[in-house]
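Title: Prediction job returns without error message
Component: structure pipeline
Severity: low
Priority: P3
Assignee: unassigned

Description:
Job completed but the reporter wants confirmation the result is attached to the right record. Sequence as submitted:
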Amino acid sequence: MQKLRVMAALFAAGLATTAAAQAGDRFAAFNSTTGTTLSGVYLAPAGTTAWGPNQTLSEHDHTLEPSERLRLKGITHGVYDVRLVDAAGHSCVKRGVDLTHETSFEIRESDLAGCR
């Protein structure tokens, strides 16, 4: 009986771990610009410069094209600053992206206005 309880507890823990991993895979960015292809999308906890990996590298062509959705990996709920790099190498930061309750955000033309 004790062995059965231990196995049931391990099974439940495995399900919880799998669910947490799957929840992390649900985050996404959407490029709602009309003509800007991004070659870099990096996230850092808001107010820091601890940039994570380039999220576009998980795409088959390593870019985030207009009207395309990018699955974000390796992040959890929180508030982020997002560094955006266009195909010409211009870079800018979208600050305060709140993913505490949401699982996606949009990149708009206005977000790229300050890119240099």
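Comment from assignee: result matches the submitted record. Helices lie at 2-24.
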